[in-house]
Structure formats: C-alpha cells, structure tokens
Amino acid sequence: MTEFLAFLPFLVIVVCYELLPLCQLAVSSFTEKTSGKPGFENYIKIFTTPLYQQSIVNSVRISLISAAVGLVVAFFAADLCHEAKEGTRRRFTMLLNMMSNFSGVPLAFAFMVLMGNTGVLTLLGKKAGIPFLANFNLYSGNGLVLVYIYFQIPLATLLLLPSFSGLRPEWREAAVILKADPLDYWLRIAIPNLLPGILGTLSVLFANALAAFATAYAIVMNNYALLALQITSKYKGDVEIDKATGGALAMVLIGLMVLATAVNDCFTKKSTQGRRLV
Amino acid sequence: MNRRSRLFAGIFLILVSCYLLLPFLMTLVYSLFSEWTDILPHGFTLRNYGNLFSDPEFWSSIARTLVLCAVSVLLTITVLLLAMYVIIAVNRNLRGFMQIVCMIPYALQGVILSISIISIYSGTGTFLSNRLLMLFGAYTILVLPYIYQGICNSLNAISSETLLEAAQVLGCGKFRAYLQVIIPNILSGVFISALLAESIVFGDFVLANNIAGNNYQNIQVFLNRRMFKSSGLASAIVVVIFAVVLLITGMVLKLQKPQTGRENG
Question: Domain tally for chain A?
Fold first, then answer.
C-alpha cells in the first residue's frame, strides 16, 4: 500500500492544476452571475450578445480558412517532398521542423516588419504599385488569416508526411499497368488512402488555430472579436474577474475543439471500415 | 519522376522554403540595419544587439525564463517518474487514467489552461493565489504530455517489466531496481523529451502573460512589451529567442537521429 505514495505527488499536481480548475470552469459557466444559482444565463448571454457571437464566428472562420489553405499547400509540399530524393527530403523536413518553432509573438513581430503599416513589403507595394501589398491591413481579420496560414503550413506538412510514406509505390505501378490515368490513381487510390491522415491533420490544424493566442494578441491586442482573446480578457486584472461569461466562452471553445476531434474520429472510422470491406 | 516534373517539384519546394524563411530572415536583416524606409536597408549596425545586451531587464527576463524552464521540467520529470513506478511495478490499471490525464493538456493548450487556473485560485486569499505558484503549476501541466510520451516510449523500448523481474530474481527490491536499473536506462530518452519541453516553455507567451503578466515577466512578455516601443530592439529579441529555440531543437534532432536509425536497421 505504501507504494501508492509514489503516485501521490503526480495526483496532487494534476488534481490541483488540471482537473479541479477544469471542473471549476464548467461549474462557473453554469452559475448565474447575479443570483449564483445554476442556470443557462451565461450561455444565453454569449449567444445573444453581438460581440461574443462575432467572436465565435470569426474564430471558426479564421481557423477553417487557415486550416484549409494550410492543408492544400501542405498536401502538395508533402507529396513532392515524399517523392523527392533522400537529401532533399531530409533538408526540407529539417526546415519544416525549424520553422514550425517560429510562432507566437516573434512570428507576429516578423509579420509586422513585413506587412505592418510601414512594413518592408508594404513599402515595396507602394513603390511598385501593387495595391494588395500597399493596402494590406495586417491588424485585421484578413491579417490574422495570413499569419495563421503561415504557422499552419509547416505543421500540416509534418503531420501529412507519414501518411504519404504509407502510399506504396507498387500501387501506382499496378494502376499504370491497368491503364489508369494519373487522375484515376489520385482520386481512386491515393486520396482515399490518405483521407484519414488528411482529416486528422485538418482537425489538428483547426483546433490549433482556434486555441492560438500569442500571435493574435500581439497583432490585434483586444481590438478584434476573437474567442481566445475574449476569453482571456475576462480574466485580466486582479480585481474584476468575470468567471461566469469567461467560463461559458471557454466551454464554447472546448466544445468546438471536441467537435473537431469527434468529426475527425467519425470520418476516420468510416474510412477504415470502407477499406476493410474492400 | 521525369525531368520536367522533378524540376517543378524542386521549384515548388524551394518556393515553400523561401516563404517559410522569409519572415525570420527579414527580421534578421531588419535587426542589423539602422534604417529600412526604402526598398533596401542601409546603415549596417550592431547597435540593436548592443542595446539589448546592455539592458538589465533583458537579462532578468532571460533569468526568469530559465528558472521557469528548469523548475517546471525537473518537477514534471520527478513526479512522472515516481508515478510511473506505481504503474509498472504495482498497479497497471492506473495507466489508462494517467494516459488521459497526461494528454488533456495537449488538447487544451495555453488559453484554457491559464484561465482555468486563474479562475479557481485568484482572489482566494490563500497561498494558492500566489501568481508564481500558479505559474509553476501551469507550466508543470503544460509540459506533461511531452515528458509523459518520452518516458512511455523509453520504457517500452527497454522492456521494463523483464528488467524489473530480472532484478527482483537477483534479490533486488522493486523500488531499488526501478531507481538503479530502469531509470538509468531511460535517462537519455527522457532527456530528449525534456529538451522538447524546454523549447515549449521557452516559447510560451500565453501562460506567462495571463497568469503572471508584469509580476514575473518572461522573455516573450518582455518582447511583447518592447515591440511597440522600439522595433529595432524587438527585432534583436526575436532573433535571440529564435536562435535559442533553434539550438534546442537542433539538439533534439541530433540526439534523436541515432535512435531512429536503430529502429530502421
């Protein structure tokens, strides 16, 4: 029995700093602010207040767009990297590993240097008369999409590469012998096999963008309606903490992330079932 | 692949590489010149770095960050190694619980973790409402998934049960066998995951900003505060941060290589 004592430090830390805080978050989201009674008041409030509605919509929109664009670029990059020579593949993967660490506040600053109001590319755009660069507003929703896409690409490629190494060269040879054209090969053989990997990556990217905070905070501060920013703003400062609204917003964020994972699980199961039948 | 598609593949990969490198390289150039108001920068200078390295606040932020890195990672390793003992030597049924608990922080990420801890402890008036204590607690949870994964993989790689049994047959106590046989064997694997965790803590802004803010300013919070005052100084900080992170990741990649080689061979 005394041997279980070794488990105790772990249990204490995990309960105090992970499990209890999470439970408390859930409880406070269902506790009405004024009366202190249990109820749905906080959820009704966030789904009827334009600012919070907008935050949820913006967060989902930015996460979806950045995940989709990141995934498309990563798909081609992973495919070409997979088929490239050993040396190229090694160098490219190393670069991805390196640059996937360039995130958060440093990344936000780098984009300000590039595309901020007096950024290098902005000036170049003005000189060369490229309206997209000259008038680009980094401190907006579109600016965030651009920066988010940047950090999605290396992550997505690194996540997709293992799926591509699961594609056997014999499959393509067999397809060619059976006179399948390249499009048939991709649509009927490669993509169905890659699908679980693609969807899994998409859900990771989506959750990753939803929960991203540092980059957004450094670029737009609190001047843009975004779920992660709204949640944290409820807990800033020692005096006034709005646990009720903050808790409900946090539960919405958790809910969205769980949803992304669940959708992915569902698709993955279906696709593996389909493969087993074939 | 034929020559044309190989050429196309090469160009595409080079384009993606350039795109990924561009923001950092521009920041690097920006930090080395005094002015960049035209197409090309001019006035090469190391002044930004000079100013940064003579700023006491920079050094104190670095020191705080290093303390956070060391304490949280060491604490997590110790606690997890102890708990792992119970799982491999006493009761395997706890493994499922441990796996779930260790993977939750990976899914939650910084925002939820930081505000849930603030939400429960801030303003309670007890010692738990100490911001520094909350911060260390939060970092310990943040690195949990990485260290856990590292320890698990290393334990699987050495077939820990057999080793433990062998030691017991030779008359060694269970706990002593764990300390003297198992742990020395997994240390190198744990070290790699610890490095990975260090790079996570070093790169963290969310927890430090939300929980401690100005009370315990780490390097990322320092960068965020300087960003709007002096962009030259900020660019130098970005370069220094990324250089450190690269150094850590480089070490991880280098240390991991022989292992993957063995797996393949």
Answer: 1
Helices first, then strands: H and E counts in chain B: 11, 2
> B17: which residues sit within 8 A by CB, 6+ positions away?
A92, A95
Identify all chain B residues contacting A211, using CB atoms and an 8 Å cutoff.
108-112
Q: How many CB pairs under 8 A join A and B?
A: 228
What is the residue range of A164's domain? 40-277
| A61 located within any domain | yes
Residue A130 placed within a domain: yes
Domain containing residue A79: CATH number: 1.10.3720.10
Distance CA A272, CA A266 (A): 10
- Is the domain spanning B59-217 CATH 1.10.3720.10? The answer is yes
10 Å CB burial of residue A19 (0-12, 13-18, 19+) is middle
pLDDT digits (tens, 9 = 90+) for A215-266: 999 999 888 999 999 999 988 865 578 888 999 999 999 999 999 888 888 8
On the CB side of B130, how many CA atoms lie within 13 Å of its CA?
A: 7
ipTM exceeds 0.85, yes or no: yes
Identify the closest residue of chain A to B109 by CA–CA distance.
Answer: A211
What counts of helices (H) and strands (E) characterise chain A? 15, 0
Q: Considering the entire predicted model, what is its pTM?
A: 0.89
Q: For chain B, percent helix, then strand, then coil, each to nearest 5?
A: 85, 0, 15
Say which residue the tokens 């907008």 belong to: A54
Query: Quick one: how far is CA A25 from the chain centroid?
Result: 22
Chain A hits for B16, Cβ within 8 Å? 73, 77, 153
In sign, the C-alpha dihedral spanning B55, B60, B63, B64 is: negative
Tokens of B198: 């260090």
Q: Do B21 and A95 touch (CB under 8 A)?
A: yes
Nearest to A219 by CA among A268, A148, A121: A148
Res. A272 pLDDT band, cuts 50 70 90: low
Strand, helix or coil for residue B122: coil
Contact A52, A230 (CB under 8 A): yes
State how far Cα B136 lies from the chain centre: 14
**Residue type, position B71, single letter:** V
Per-domain boundaries in chain B? 59-217
Q: Do B79 and A213 touch (CB under 8 A)?
A: no
CB neighbourhood size of A46 (10 A)? 23
What's the per-residue H, E or C state across B13-38? HHHHHHHHHHHHHHHHHHHHEEECCC
Residues A38-45: what's their mean pLDDT? 90
- Tens of pLDDT, residue by residue over B15-26, are 999 999 999 999
In a domain, A48, yes or no: yes
A20 inside domain: no
